[in-house]
Design a protein that fits this description.
alpha/beta; Rossmann fold; 7 strands; 29% helix; methyltransferase; methyltransferase activity; SAM-dependent_MTases_sf; transferase
Length: 229
Amino acid sequence: MNDFDFLNKDTFEADKYKDMVKSYYEKDKPTQWFDHIYESAKGDYTKVFWADLEPSPYLVSWLKENPINKANKRACVIGCGVGDDAQALSEFGFEVIAFDISPKAIELCKNRYPDTKVQFIVADLFDYPKEWFESFDVVYECNTIQVLPDEYRKKARTSMTSLLSKDGYILVSCRSRDEHEKEDEIPKPLSKSEIDEFITVQNLKEQSFLAYDDEQVPSVPHFFAVYKK
């Protein structure tokens, strides 16, 4: 047993998880804990505690309702986890690069989808390969911003936006909160003013915005927003 077995889906302990994340925040290493999540699964992607094991239904619905009819269309999945959303984009005809800072996550993806066309790559959102700059028609971001501390959240939005090609779309899925509430929560949900910085700071155009409660008990409020460059 290692020090992070409490992160396995079968043994998950929320308080220990939050203490671990906070300890990395305090060391100003806010992305270096992700690999522990996937290492705790011991090679079994079904044991990753936050994995839904299916693509986002909101992503799939958007892809069905907004077909992008162009040759060689490209998509990028940020913090791809165990790969569900990346595989869905591939099945809709995109050339997909899906990256995660966690080598263990990428290993799980490659083992889970041995015949996939997706390029699963270990990469850092804050230092991605220069050839990715402004090169994707669709960028999918799910729950990355909310697990970062404040200054890194702003940096993340800028970096995510920089991946978009002209007329590209970024789809943003996250937990939500009312203004000035849950300020110390880990993960910290996004307020409306915060997600609106894709408009007010990054100068993107809002294409659609949905606030909804998921089906968990108790339910958890979420946003699903689409912005265009």
